[in-house]
Amino acid sequence: MKNAIVSFCFFIAAFLTASAQTTGNKILGVWTNEDNKVHIEFTQYGNNYSAKLIWMAKPNDENGNSKKDKNNSDPKLRDRQLIGVPIIWNLKFQNSKWVNGAIYGPEKGIVADCSIVMPDANTLNIKATKGIFSNVKTWKRIK
Asked: Which residues contact 110 (CB under 8 A, 6 or more apart)?
């Protein structure tokens, strides 16, 4: 009887974990920012969600070269191409939102705390917080 109760509890815990991960997976896919100048793809690694820059409306600089991460605070990363740069990382899905992540803004080279809520299947409200300042941006699903 004791083994049956333990097995049942394990089954319930596994079901709830799988259900939470499936709900958290709603964020997976390709999204665009408010002015449709970049596309960002969300992926999952274990229990964490992250996103990288996969497309830019203007991927080249004035000389026709691929834009680089020139504003990065780490000088060793300033020569990498912006396409493929991680934009969001370490998000965890908890209580119907993604929390405790970080977001990188390559235009200023700033990393901020990040959380995301999804008011509907095709909208992300991304809150970036740095110190006492915060900003919310809305991204739309592409696919």
From this structure: 73, 104, 130
